[in-house]
């Protein structure tokens, strides 16, 4: 996706910090903050520095992300799922703990204090139950994690290693289930909810006269406008928006522009809010038929960010 210079993305770092503190207070567990995918599009460099003193660690998809976000400059270590190097010194120098799930990689990276990943049902990025003891021993792992999407999967991790290793399985989807919190929680979306406000302005506004746009839509309000953001910027049709505080709809999306419904008083230059001010990630996700994570990433990446 290419950010549109006509879209403003305002990131509320205080809200992100408050979200982290709320998770920590609610669970009573250390927080491992997921900052992969550039902090779900909200800017991992800035997010990390806003929360570094209230989290225990950061979690990224690969080492390249940790380097790009300069996480080694923060006060806490980073867990990286993927990494090409087999030299433990490369990880130690950058305050990265590699995630491992094979005997070979665990052995080679033992000096970097690797974290064991266990497959509890997703069948990716984890060792099967029958190899857990061997991989753990090879890496000297004192911490283990799993990618869990259910309480049952978190329970599998506990049954395998509970009481002998620090465990974390709880992503955002499991924060409503205390039995899945284990020894630490690893939230993603939960720390970003409500922290992004995405807005643009009307480039054009007019009365609708018959079929309009590529799809030949007819505005249900009798008026429509154009904003300068489209598919290439992450926008999709059917989503909600606010025009002068009134809830409207994005009715058609092109590559770099989109049509929105308008009311009688709306005019060119008026603000259009695509996320925030009462429009949540869940609202957008429901209309787009995607996950709230997907909706947030798309809209947070749609324009020019400020913090």
Q: Percent range for helical residues?
A: 25-40%
Give the biggest beta sheet.
Answer: 8 strands, parallel
Which structural class do you get from the secondary structure elements? alpha/beta
Give the H and E element order. EHEHHEHEHEHEHEHEEEEEEEEHHE
What's the level 1 CATH class of the largest domain? Alpha Beta
**CATH domain topology of the largest domain:** TIM Barrel
Percent in strands? 25-35%
Strand order, main sheet: write it out.
Answer: 2-3-4-5-6-7-8-9
Number of helices: 10
Describe the fold and architecture.
This protein is of the alpha/beta class and about 300 residues long. The protein has two domains: about 15-190, Alanine racemase (TIM Barrel); about 195-305, Beta Barrel (Lyase, Ornithine Decarboxylase, Chain A, domain 1), CATH 2.40.37. Helix content is about 25%, strand content about 25%. Strands 2-3-4-5-6-7-8-9 form an eight-stranded parallel beta sheet. It has a six-stranded antiparallel β-barrel with strand order 10-11-14-13-12-15. α1 (about 15-25) packs across α3 (about 45-50) and α9 crosses α10. The longest helix is centred in the first third of the chain and has 15 residues, at about 15-25. The protein is elongated, with a radius of gyration of 22 Å. It starts with a strand and ends with a strand.
Observed structural traits:
alpha/beta; Lyase, Ornithine Decarboxylase, Chain A, domain 1; eight-stranded parallel β-sheet; six-stranded antiparallel beta barrel; 27% strand
């Amino acid at each position: 996706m290419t950010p549109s210079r006509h879209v403003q993305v305002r990131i509320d770092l205080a809200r992100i910090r408050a979200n982290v503190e709320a998770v920590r207070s609610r669970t009573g567990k250390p927080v491992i903050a997921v900052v992969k995918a550039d902090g779900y599009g909200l800017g991992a460099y800035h997010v990390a520095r806003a929360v570094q003193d209230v989290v225990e660690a950061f979690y990224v998809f690969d080492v390249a992300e940790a380097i790009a976000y300069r996480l080694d400059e923060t006060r806490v270590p980073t867990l990286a799922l993927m990494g090409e190097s087999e030299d433990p010194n490369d990880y130690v120098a950058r305050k990265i703990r590699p995630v491992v799930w094979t005997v070979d990689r665990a052995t080679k990276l033992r000096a970097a204090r690797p974290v064991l990943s266990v497959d509890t049902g997703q069948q990716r990025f984890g060792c099967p139950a029958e190899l857990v003891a061997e991989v753990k021993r090879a890496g000297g792992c004192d911490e283990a994690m799993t990618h869990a999407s259910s309480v049952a999967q978190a329970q599998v991790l506990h049954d395998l290693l509970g009481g002998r290793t620090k465990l974390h399985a709880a992503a955002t989807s499991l924060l409503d289930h205390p039995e899945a919190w284990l020894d630490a929680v690893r939230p993603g979306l939960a720390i970003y909810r409500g922290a992004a406000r995405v807005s643009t302005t009307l480039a054009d506004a007019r009365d609708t006269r018959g079929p309009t746009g590529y799809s030949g839509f007819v505005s249900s309000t009798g008026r429509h406008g154009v904003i300068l953001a489209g598919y290439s910027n992450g926008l999709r049709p059917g989503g909600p928006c606010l025009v002068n505080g009134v809830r409207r709809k994005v009715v058609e999306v092109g590559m770099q522009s989109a049509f929105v419904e308008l009311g009688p008083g709306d005019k060119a230059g008026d603000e259009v809010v695509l996320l925030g001010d009462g429009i949540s990630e869940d609202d957008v996700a429901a209309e787009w038929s995607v996950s709230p994570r997907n909706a947030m990433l798309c809209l947070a990446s749609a324009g020019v960010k400020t913090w």
